[in-house]
Sequence to fold (103 residues):
Amino acid sequence: MGVIPADRVTVAHPQEVPPLQERVRNTVLKGYAPATIPLDELAMAVFAVELEPTSVWSRSELRTHKQAINALAARFVELVPGLREALRDSYLSSRAVGGAWSA
Fold:
């Protein structure tokens, strides 16, 4: 029993994390044209940028590839209007109440 309650998220298959991070990283770092990226790859990259970018890229990589990130986000908004903003708003509102959705 801790003074501050904390929920831990555990990954069921940790061996799958590094390859997934690499796929998401490459979506941004390889400079692919946004229109050529499959929607699932595009979504993973955009969601990672919106939620926890430093779990995938360093701050310097984010700065260096800002234009590519913005192009990917714009393409995602074209394909799925409103989802990026809704995800970001949901994430930010959950942080305001302690980092978890309430019932």
The first helix runs from residue 17 to 29.
